[in-house]
Design brief:
Layout: E1 5-13, H1 16-27, E2 35-37, E3 44-54, H2 58-70, E4 75-85, E5 89-96, H3 98-111, E6 127-133, H4 143-149, E7 154-160, E8 162-169, E9 176-184
Antiparallel strand pairs: 1-3, 1-8, 2-6, 4-5, 4-7, 5-6, 8-9
């Protein structure tokens, strides 16, 4: 019998005020004809996507993530401006304490390298994904104008004081998220 595999990622949650500001912008525009936008409750800052992980490995993965988080101090981020990866992904830019964020991402990757099937070799760009293109390029091409108009739109600030290990279950509809662990930054790890 094949071991059960879970689709996992670790993320920093985004506070409701920032998510609401992003949703408010998306509601006031027709960009949603071009992109399938993230549902408000699913907006997060991905630290590392693991892909499929054996369910039996989850306790060890969680322990390693807890140790990484214990050594990291909380930090502040600011969501400001929009960007795009290629023609497919629409995102919100992040500013603020980027050095500790980058260190947390690098340390997470180093300490969890043996987990999951997904290997992302790209350099980390601090961002929150808010939409994925669902249609081919339109004739009106509203995206560049939309990005230009909102290149400095401020969505708010928040303090990142924990990460979450999240299971993403794919089905016939949207992916269903379940938080498996809340991992405080700078907190002692119980022995």
């Amino acid at each position: 019998m094949k071991p059960e595999r879970w689709r996992l990622f670790v993320a920093a949650p985004v506070v409701d005020e920032v998510k609401a500001a992003i949703a408010q912008l998306l509601e006031r525009t027709d960009i949603t004809r071009e992109f399938k936008c993230s549902r408000l409750e699913k907006i997060h800052l991905t630290i590392r996507f693991f892909g499929n992980v054996s369910a039996g490995q989850v306790p060890e993965l969680q322990a390693r993530l807890a140790e990484v988080c214990r050594r990291a101090a909380p930090f502040s981020l600011r969501a400001e401006g929009l960007g795009q990866f290629g023609q497919r992904v629409l995102w919100v830019d992040l500013q603020g304490d980027l050095a500790p964020l980058r260190q947390l991402v690098a340390e997470t990757a180093a300490q969890t390298a043996g987990f999951g099937e997904h290997r992302d070799e790209r350099d980390f760009t601090p961002h929150i994904t808010i939409g994925r293109r669902v249609h081919q390029r339109s004739r009106t091409e509203p995206v560049p104008a939309f990005l230009q108009a909102h290149r400095s739109t401020a969505f708010g600030e928040w303090r990142v004081d924990h990460l979450e290990l999240i299971r993403s279950a794919l089905g016939s509809g949207a992916a269903q998220y379940a938080t498996l662990a809340r991992l405080p930054l700078g907190a002692p790890v119980p022995r």
